[in-house]
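Example record used in the benchmark description.
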Amino acid sequence: MSVSKIVAAAASSAGGAGLDVDEVFSTTLYSGTNANQTITNGIDLSGEGGLVWTKARDYGVGHGLVDTVRGNTKYLEANGADAEATTSVGITAFNSTGYNLGADDTWKFNVSNSYVSEYVSWTFRKSPKFFDIVTYTGNGTAGKTVAHNLGSVPGMIIFKKTSAADNWAVYHRGANGGTDPEDYRLELNENFAQSNRDGFLNDTAPTATHFTVGDGALSNTNGATYVAYLFAHNNNDGEFGPDGDQDIIKCGSYTGTGSAGNSINLGFEPQWLMVKSATRSGQNWEMFDNMRGVPTGGNTSELFPNTNSAERSAFNIINFTATGFETATTLDETNENGQTYIFMAIRRGSLNTPDDATKVFHVNSYSGNSNSNVYNTGFNVDMNINTMTSSSPRYLLSRLTTKYLETNTTASDGAGPSTVFNSESNVVNLNQSWWANTNNVMSYSWKRAPSYFDVVAYTGTGSAGLAVNHNLGVVPEMIWVKSRSHGGTFYDWAVYHKDLGNTKYLFLNTNAVAAANDEYWNNTSPTSSVFSLGGPSTRTNESGKTYIAYLFATAPNVSKVGSYTANGNAQNIDCGFSSGARFVLIKRYDLGGHWFVFDTVRGIVSGNDPNLQLNENAAQESTYDHIDPYSAGFTVAAYDDDDSPYVNQSGASYIFYAIA
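Model output (structure tokens):
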């Protein structure tokens, strides 16, 4: 075990900080190039070790698995029985932040041609209570034990003979509904149901230090070499996150209902999910992740470990929720009535409150420069607001739904460009079928993170007291809610703000004053895990209607949700920042007032400041000096007869949201 793993494990056992999800797992989307390139995913493979599992998304090329124990030149195909193969131009090296690719001749890792060019890779880092890799040589004798360093009882183990052709074998704690699962075997490269095979694990349950193999060919042929990939199951004993007490991986089972809405509670929102019918043959293994797309209410992007098929996005199969996942259809592969399904799920990260706003917020523009409305944000974006400085709708797009809403209208959601979020990691692509090469585009991007920002989709019940789970981790200080399924009159954007209280609301799409109504927030303040809705309210909780909520909070030196009373003089608004605000949203709530947006790309200067309004599609206005730079936040400029009263009318009340 490396020094860093020993330190992390010791810290966790003592109640200190543990590893973050983003340090041990990554889903990375990239384009093949036919040339050397580096995949940076933040995973220390050279120091800690791990597995890279890669699949071409747009063509029928086999899954390529490469691990640090067997070496970067050796790969296996999940969908085939072949022995390990060798290539020197696949993964050419592992490094401390990912890995390097060569001019691939296998098509599995880095090709760009008329058939294949888009890839996904999943990286699993070796870490106690998450993942381990073991290699061993079989002796053909039942009862052989093999030591591992997972540090807990494995939830799933995937075996492959590497020295000769043979099927993959899978142990899963949920096989046979969790009763004597060690007696049963599945096969990763086949769609078979579970089968009772005592030659597989010798009918012996794995422990926190060893697993036992029988005398079967898939796990213990005499003289054959094997690799075993061990995945943990955290059951309120995970050692991850800032306090070293969070679960990040679950291996379990559920019974299909044959009806949409079959809900599986994990205790966290997943970012990655593998599912297989354990009791019925003919059903594929399925892999889902939120990077390629698991849109709530939209078609799910799926890949199949047992086939080389290209990515399929034909059905709404699975929805991720704040507490787990739910089946969206009655498809036999995930939800046939009465069948048992096994799954492995990995938690969405990060678990840590951000301390650098540039890692969770990005603002940029296109004015004929080189980015052509394709923005490299440096992080995977969960919400993007984009518009033009000339008259234009204010589009708000969400990774959770892959659709857009308009902050300046009451319209229901619509289909945005198909590749906004899922074409490449750390990129927002507004070029295709959206803005193309349109000039004067503004783009604002947010990443979900604890104590900063979260997104939740839900369905209304019409009953007062509906509690909606969220993963903000702190009490939300501002919430925007909009019906996705319905638009028009009475379907405005509803806004909660802590300084207005739980009896009042604003509309994001209008300049109206704050008003009171218990149908919005049920006269109940949100908590660190749920927010409450009244009913029936068309804007927040009408029965059967679908909604989306955006939750904002104050993260030290990153974001600030607050309010102020103007005095007409220059007034410093202290947000606790150190280098000023890059983004400021201000709204007057005691009298009609627009939702004004300022940013440093267009200019927050000591002079006239361009502003856009989220509730209007008008061109930006640059006539007045509204706000000025201030290192701790921003300054509301002094108001006189020649200036605009929009943000500093003496005696007026304002709310604001600022990002450093």
